[in-house]
Write a structure and sequence with these properties.
By secondary structure, the protein is mainly alpha-helical. Helix content is 48%, strand content 0%. Among the domains are: 104 residues; 167 residues, Serine Threonine Protein Phosphatase 5, Tetratricopeptide repeat (Alpha Horseshoe), CATH 1.25.40.20.
Amino acid sequence: MNEEMNQPNEKVPNQTCIPSKAINDSISKELNTNCLLDHGVKDAATVFVSCSDYEATRCCLTLGVHPERLQGGHIMNILSEDTQTTTVVDWKLIVRLLLEAGVDPNICDLTGTPLISLLVSTGDVSLVRLALAKGANIEAVRPNGDTPLAMAVHCRDVTCIDFLLNKGANPNCITGNGNSALKWSVGRANGFTLLRSQTCVELLLKYGADPNYKNQMGMTPLMSVSRREANTARMLIAAGADPNITDNQGETALMKAVETCAHQVVLTLLECGSNPNVKSSIGASAAMYAKSEEVLKMLLENGADPNIKDNEENVPIHHHAKRNQYSLCKLLLEYGSNIDPRNKAGETPLQLSVRTRSINCINLFLDLNSDVTTVNKKGISVLHDAIISWDYFSTINIFSKINSLAEMEDFNRYSQYNESTTTLKSLLLKGADPNCTGEGGVTPLMLASAICDLNAVDCLIKSGASVHTADHQGLIPLSYACKWGRTEIVRLLLNRDSPVNVIDKEGNLPIFYAAQFKFEEILSMLMVELAFYFHSYM
């Protein structure tokens, strides 16, 4: 029997539940102090679990059942799981009754959650006070690592937070996710009012919370301040938060506020001494994170350098040009940004805006006479970029792809994005050289011929692009068109007097490629042209 009585975690089927009166009668008649044998119930704790009954509990205690018999994990199962048979009122009454009767205040349920953690989650400070008075550990940790104070902070329970801190809870406790209680109090409101969150911060700081504590990512509470929490930011800085401290990525609170367009927070940080020229691990400054004209203007007016360089030697205008952020580029130029700075790749803001089709920025730079003859270190000019109308990766790799027949499907797929030649015309009108050469001697006309941009080919030829120029392999624009099966381009080039008798370094005429890949219509056109050519010399 004693062995059975020491099995507190075993539950009894519902049919063994006994009303309070039956328990009272049974205990009165046959109570062997801790057993209810008449009903086949193993111990008073099991009866308690089955009934979830305040009166039954009170009755057992009154008649001498030791409170430890009502413990053993069963009480915690009721508190955390058996909510269908126990009301919140009964729940609290039972806990109070057991604590006053001497139940261990540091009891945990089967998941390892301490009683005091459950009490904190109810928001009933009187029960928390009673548990602590009975010896509950104020720093008891849940399986996920949360202390009672961390739970109270998560719930934004200001009253409970104040009580726990007053009773000596560690204000620098770490939550289960590795954040300090202070950091957990700022940022996302989680449905709670801003005022309650700010009060949590105020209480934690009052009791000595460290405003510069970093989590595993190096984030401090100040870095988590949301756009509505300018007052919280000021409160943290007043308590000693360093506005220029950086996280593991080298980013400051200012950078994060700038990136989220938290205007008032940005202004507060700048007023409190945040340095707008601190660089992140990639060398980025706050001005490079800006997304709104208002925020960027705040930075510039507070000393942000418009020509500061990141690790790739991009300045802020590089970043905003490729994002088509016209108003930000214009503002940077007004505050002294260079118009044609080159990054490590040798690219100017104009070239980046051309590549990403940032039309407004292109027009801005052209109106201010940006250099249209720019060629980057990969041999790509602004004209090449104007013709290649897909992503940066494809642009950078164009010269390795253009002579690879295996890449034909890529060119067929991307050529559809050439919607107009507006940018190309604008660049040519500003003096861009239509015969400039890139890596391998590839000209814009060769590129346009390869990707089947009929409008670009026509525009380039009208602007002086030569149909006779050969690349380093001896290929002329017609060779490219034949190689890629561009029938309409071949027809246009022939109409513009493209030679058909140029032999490349492999010893091939353009017609060779049409024959090799069985482009029948192109083959027919070239045979006619070659027949005319040979006839004229006979």
